[in-house]
Amino acid sequence: MLSTVKIIGLAMVFLWICFKIGPYFLRFAIKLVRHLDIGEAKMFISFLFVMALAWTANLVGLATIVGAFAAGMILHDAYFRHWGEIHQHRVSIKDLISPLEVILVPIFFVLMGVQVKLETMYDPHVLFMAGGLIIAAIFGKFVSGYFAGRGIRPLPVGVGMVPRGEVGLVFASIGKSLNVINDELFSALVMMVIVTTLLTPPALKFAFSYCEAKAPGP
Known about the structure:
By secondary structure, this protein is mainly α. It has helices at about 1-30, 40-60, 65-75, 95-115, 125-145, 155-160, 165-175, 185-215. The protein has eight helices and no strands.
């Protein structure tokens, strides 16, 4: 329990420092590469910033994804608004990074799939764990949806938060590499991610249709 509180506190302090110091680091780095084309500068600075925060997060004992997440929240095109070629070169940071996403995301899922032992999928114990994780994942988000605030439809909000996706797989992979998660639990987590990801689109469509049907008429 004490270790969990320590990690949460460390993550909060790390994010707070990143949000305070990160913009200054970005502005300083941008000044150093003003001789580059704006597209090259955006790509270089974005990659450097993400890697720097990911490395720093790992250095202080956090997962690298925490640093990458902080970098993504801080980075935006406004830092480059004073660039001389901004009006001729309007490509965004997202547009520049998208090709890397197309290449790296499939590789990530291949690496996750390689770690799954198919024989464990037929183990009743693994199926039982996966069922429990799926129920907890869905029920927890449904309950969270009802605290979304006034004037917001809780059912679509809850359903929209159900899928775990890449982040869940990242933490599962980290746990497996640290021997905190065994092969059976890892397989159960992967099954939970797959089911919640595939289930959400039709469930979300139903949630919106249900809310519209229940809405009072004009």
